[in-house]
Structure formats: structure tokens, C-alpha cells
Amino acid sequence: MKFQIPSLIMAILERDLRLALRHGADTLGAVLFFILAGALFPLALGPSPELLRRMAPGIVWVCALLAALLPLDRLFGAELEDGSLDQLLMTGLPASLIALAKMMAHWLTTGLPLLLAAGPLAIMLGMPSGSMVVLLTGLFLGTLILSLIGGMAASVVLGARRGGVLLPLLVLPLTTPALIFGAAALDAAQTGLSWGPDLELLGAFLAAAIPLCPLAAGAGLRAAVE
Asked: How far apart are CA 67 and CA 114, in angstroms?
């Protein structure tokens, strides 16, 4: 069974990626929301380049956080409705690894496209080109954190009444540290200060989330099925 675990994880991941390609509206909707929400800020704040450049770190991170929330309510919901979640748990694969595979699929179909769309949005907001490396590095770590915490929260509210309402209430407070560290690193890069410590804290947050979030999500999946 130990030798089958990697192949089972890859099978779940491949299945989710095929479903995401077949139903690409979720990914496209998240990316369009990310870009359009960011484009609204210049209309509300005014055309001042200096103001937009100063607020760009917070704008990019808040829009990425909200866009990553959009597909989360369907992360495990479809499998619970059609009974395939029971079949996945019957494969013998630990529930935590099933949850981890689903979280990886969420990042590949939502986090990675947001990461690719962040560059054009940052340029539109007037962010200096020298800050792009910090932006992409921080968002790479941050979107992974969002997928892990979002997957954990999605499993907790799985099967609950009005779970779609509860989901943002769980995710947003838990992802606040990632938002703070990521935006602070980007702001420090723009002002010429040291941005390394903020990214290190973001990396430490990710290191803690990698083992803990799948374990909690696995417990949520078992509780939802039982």
C-alpha cells in the first residue's frame, strides 16, 4: 500500500485537473475577478500614480485573497454530492492525503493562474519593475497558504447548512497573517527597505500549514462522510 500512495495521489490530482479543464469557468472567473477588482481601485482612488503605487501591495494581495475564495465551496462539495468522496476514502488512502491532493489541484487551477495574472495587474497599478521578484515570490508562498487554509476550511463546513456563507468567515481571519507579511514585503521592496524577514515569516507560515492543514481537512472529510 505504501508504494501505491504516490500513484493514488497523482490519480486524484490528475482527475481534478481534467475536471478543471472541462469546467474552466471557475478558473476563468477567479482570474477575471482578480483583474477587474484590481482595476476598480484606480477608479475609486483617483488617477494619482504615486497613490496607486503606494497602495499597490495591499490591492494585489487583497484581490488575490478574495479571488482564491471563489472556487473553494466546490472543492469537496461535488464529491460529497455524487458519492465519489466515499469512494476516495475507501481506496485506503489517508483522508489527509486526499485533502492534500485536492489542495494541490486548487493551487494549480486557481493559485497559479492568479500568480501569472499578478504581473499585468501590478504594472497597471504602477508598481516598479524591481519589485516584481518580491511580488511573485510572496504570491507564490501566499497562494499556497491560501489553498491549504481554504481547503481546510472547505472540509470543515462540508455538508453544513449555508456553508458558503461560513467559508469566508473561517478563511479570512486565518489568512490575515499571510496578507500582512506579503504586503509588508512588497511595500518594503518599493521603499528600499529589507524585505527578506517578511518573506521568511511567510515561508514559516507555509511550513506550519503544510502538515497541519491536510490533517485538519482529513478530519473534516471523515466527519462529513460519517
From this structure: 8
